[in-house]
Model the fold of this input.
Amino acid sequence: MAPVTLDQVRCFIAVAEELHFGRAAERLSMTQPPLSRQIQKLETAVGATLLERSNRTVALTSAGSEFLEDSYRIFNALDQAVAHARRVESGSAGTVHLGFTATSAIRILGPLLVSLDKDLPDVQVILHERVTGGQVDGIRRGELDLGLARPPFDTTVLSSRVVAREPLYAVVSAAHPLATVEGPLGPEDLDGLPIISYHPVQARYFHELTVRFLVNGHSRIVQHVQQILTAMVLVAAGEGVALVPASASTLGVPGLVYKRLNDLEGGHPDSDPARPVELHAIWARGELTPLLRHVLHHVQEVATRHDDALKV
Amino acid sequence: MAPVTLDQVRCFIAVAEELHFGRAAERLSMTQPPLSRQIQKLETAVGATLLERSNRTVALTSAGSEFLEDSYRIFNALDQAVAHARRVESGSAGTVHLGFTATSAIRILGPLLVSLDKDLPDVQVILHERVTGGQVDGIRRGELDLGLARPPFDTTVLSSRVVAREPLYAVVSAAHPLATVEGPLGPEDLDGLPIISYHPVQARYFHELTVRFLVNGHSRIVQHVQQILTAMVLVAAGEGVALVPASASTLGVPGLVYKRLNDLEGGHPDSDPARPVELHAIWARGELTPLLRHVLHHVQEVATRHDDALKV
DNA sequence: TCGCACGATGCTCTGAAGGTATTGATGTCT
DNA sequence: AGACATCAATACCTTCAGAGCATCGTGCGA
Done:
């Protein structure tokens, strides 16, 4: 049982289209005798007569004309498979498992997906909402390709890049005395006030930002919440003051006033004191494939547009 | 630019599934070195790295795992193409262009299609309603494979076979004196009565049957219609008497009475005087493929069932 | 009736693909 | 830490599938 060969199918297509062995052979850049033999082999391999040939004429049998259609399909499938493999290697096609944190990255996901769908329509993004720690684990296990999370990370196995920076705001209830103060606030402006801060483990990043800002003041932390939205709701209820990223102002919680803060010194060397809240993209060190590079580029592009929109 | 070979794809599938060149080679009944070379050739032909291999381990790249899926598809398509070609050759799959005459064969088409769909689900029947002459032309031009028509035919280019015989009935209005006569009628019973006959060219077969039946009587033909249904409507309106095939009684024209006739002698040698109305299947002489044979068998089977139903 | 067009067949030879032996690199076990 | 085992890659040789050339057989047209 000799198997069917692609060459045989190629030969068959030529003969079926020309209905003439000589011309078909010419088209295939070969001579007629081996072409006849290839067709014979194909017919025995398929187990059916595909071409009815007298000494003077060639015609397709019904089995042959059906097989011709299928032959086209096979070659198209092969061509597409090759082209698709190339696109995947070049990063213009493929699948990306993208992790994100609910409260921080969710705002850029919509524009990101739109932008990717426009530029890289063959790239499929599968979203995974996880806390930073979960994203790190996912990347190490190969479940995620890219994460959008808050520092710090284990830089021995992960690479990261800042994709967005934004200012830290104080948020106070509209009825609060601070609501009408002019100019940026310093820690001393919060002296004696109740502060809504964040969970030291579950929301470590914002907890540390808050602590860093308050370090030289004399305020007191009265709550440790896990979600920024929770903090804002508590502030609206008059429970105290909270520090939130600038983009939180677009969450639309009513009855709140957002106040600029003095620059926050003491971050890592590359940080921007005016925009201390950083969102990082993270991935497995050494696994920055062309596809990830493309997606990362779109993430930064979208995040930058988002930041600009916040400035205006 | 060496083209992709099926052997290369086969090798790739084995390696991709085993993730081990040695085991994959064993599965392919070959040794490891040529397998390595086949994979290399495939990768250069595709233009992408499909397998990431260190000296100790083999892993699929993302391009490779996508190509693996496509590889399965290609092999499935090939297998199906081969199987389909065999089925078409054996006659258990394919397409049949079937001609039929509106008034005569239409009653068996429904059961025929049901029966074919049950036994030969991969056979597609395309119906063409044509008069006998149109069917003959269609068969000669290759537009039709099989026809259901009335004799005579040009037997030098067509083969034919009787698929159904049925009695000829006289149909009279319920108010007519003949409606109450007992026993089969002879031509003398119609003496002096107005007869509805058929168009000598367009409905030649029934015209000749009518003339043959009346040849020794003294009735007069007052109409030449083209359709059996037309004749029956005229009879119901009291315009005269008509001769119709037995199956016409199932057309459901109200106010009619069907009378048996004496046997009709003088047909061709094989004819049955009690059932002189014949339906023939016709096809291009020498073109009785297995598929046509199957379909023809179903036609006869269904027509026989139909006849039996009429007898009861 | 002859000749020609065209597919099939026989024979030879080349080159692609397979096999054996070996290398080189990388984990693993003691 | 060193000896060993494992596994893919490479080198070299061998074989057979497939290509080309020459020829045959047979219908169709002049």
Q: What stands out?
A: The interface with chain B takes residues 3-6, 45-50, 61-64, 66-67, 70-71, 73-74, 77-78, 80-82, 84-86, 88-89, 93-95, 289, 291 of chain A (CB under 8 Å). The first helix of chain A runs from residue 6 to 18.
